[in-house]
């Protein structure tokens, strides 16, 4: 029986497979108990199962940032974060018992993190540090203006003019409060990092919404929330059951 129980929270299939392979090759004492791709899945599993010995959490998941898991449930096991973004945050994590790996994860880096884990005698992660890093990530990347394409021009638009952002045909668009649609040169993840978190929230994989565009919320199936926005998008915007508490907290802040 393997001594160290591991959970992987990663929404990229190849990244999860690579991590499992490296663990099997370089840490045979570690067994992967579960792999999850979202905040909702991971939170549900952690509520229903004994805590693992160690967690590998990708920072940017399909339904938001994995930091949100720490706000929804009590995490009392060490976590090693993995990400392809936010290089400047690496040192902030390394001064704490939580380590940080840049993707793609390489064997040498993984072994260094595992050695650190073994020497730490399983300390609890510092929630205050996690929240501080999350806030730092937000503040350092926030912008007040976005550049958008308009015919043969590129024009600056204040972020506050946007009611919501959405993905259509794998391209990122922004809809203003005047119901004007603009194409943006960002990935959805990069855009999320640039927006002020006190005003914008990632509702789901397809939408980021401005709090000023939210007219009301309706209860939906399976504990989810449906958002009524102004102007109205072409489809229903839903908040997952796992994200509802965090969404309500954000709305009341």
TrEMBL record:
GO molecular function: DNA binding; phosphorelay response regulator activity
Domain Response regulatory: 5-118
Modified residues (4-aspartylphosphate): 58
Pfam family, one: Response_reg
Source organism, top-level taxon: Bacteria
SUPFAM superfamilies linked to this entry: CheY-like
Xref: InterPro entries: CheY-like_superfamily, LytR-like, LytTR_DNA-bd_dom, Sig_transdc_resp-reg_receiver
Alphabetical list of PROSITE patterns matching this protein: HTH_LYTTR, RESPONSE_REGULATORY
Membrane spanning residue stretches: none
Keyword annotations from UniProtKB, A to Z: DNA-binding, Phosphoprotein
Residues in HTH LytTR-type domain copies: 176-253
PANTHER family assigned: STAGE 0 SPORULATION PROTEIN A HOMOLOG, TRANSCRIPTIONAL REGULATOR-RELATED
Designated name of the protein: DNA-binding response regulator
Originating species: Chryseolinea soli
